[in-house]
Amino acid sequence: MAGESALIKEARRNTRLLVAEGILFTVGLVFFDPNTVLPLLMERLTGSAVLVGLVGAVQPLAKGVIPILSGNWISSLAHKKRFLIAMVAVGRLPLWLLGLCLILVPDAPAFLWAGLLMAVQILFWFGDSAGDPAWMDVVGKAVPNNRRGRFFATRQVAGGLLSVAAGAAVAAILGLERVGFPVNYGLVVTIGALLYLANLGTFVGLVEHPSPTSGRLRLRALLRALPRYLGANAAFGRTMVVLVLFNMSRLSLPFYVVFATRTFGLDETALAVFIPLQMIGRVLGALVWGHVGDRHGHQHAIRIAALLCALPPAIAVATGFLAPGFPVLVPFGLVFLIIGFSLEGWPPFINYMLDIVPERDRPLYAGLMGVGYVPAALAPVAGGLLIGLWSYQGLFGLTALVTTIGFVVGLTLPAAHRFAGNPEA
Asked: pLDDT of 237-284, one tens digit each?
């Protein structure tokens, strides 16, 4: 009984720490957001749509490539906590460099800031992505299947509510005329760095028990084995197709805020509306994904998320038909509300994967999920090029079409309970 009581205490401790970790990550990302703050900063520094697209490409590229390698690396490790902490530190700590340099050396050439911004962005998402398979393994061990929806919802709801205030703070800081550019952005990034330092600390307190292990593959053998793993689990392979199309929403993601400011004359103070609405969307999404996933199956939550991805680009296209003088904050506010709602739809993909693959192969499949981000890595860059060759609204129309196809494929996902007791079926 004493041993059982100790395990219960450990489980509660781990759950509380993982909830705190998620809240800090969500709030911290408001100050280092690749969809709002960073595109505006890069646009102010360079005026280049392609470089704005590169800012949006870093996250999906890292998510697409790095977890495959790190998932294979940790597959032979019974304990993965140290690896997770090391990778998270590599990503989080360089934020201090960017923030303090923007504050202390504001007169440096803009191209230096643009280069430093890209370098820090790359390190952040490299470290975060490398830690993903270990993080998923920790969550899989710490949180029971029938409570994972509620677990993610708690993280996202609490983080989202706090992020509404954080978004207002970001807009207020960027609007301080006496501070000026780029010191105002440096203050924003430094606050994010402080929050991510606390985020890093939550991992230190986790209590980890050993996981089942499998052999680590050489790189060439790993690349040869990937198609076999995809083919061995048809439901996982189909989920990957939906994930690819879901992530193609990133074609347009960095450009909504730039489109709104350039085409309709909105300024940076509009972030006081956009960021809080995006955070509110995350809260609403978390409630939906948690309820639908736990009650009706995570495949249904995936379908809803895929459908919602098609709405922001469709609304952006419709703004071209607005009458002069129409308050454009309304449609663009709705765009960012739905972006927050839909892009917080990633937990159902993780939960569904954890249900349909063998426990011993979780790190490898978790890494393999990153393949779903590879096409999306090029999407923002392609979006920047398409804007130069075509138009904003043409890009938004293409995004709506591709993401709608993802919803259609999502309708074919089987219920996860079919894999109970035989995850390789």
From this structure: 788 888 888 888 877 877 887 787 777 777 666 767 777 788 788 778
Rounded to two decimals, what is the model's pTM? 0.66
Whole-number Å distance between alpha carbons of 55 and 61: 11
Which parts of the chain have pLDDT scores under 50?
1, 420-425
Domains of the chain: 2-419 (1.20.1250.20)
* pLDDT recorded at residue 188: 92
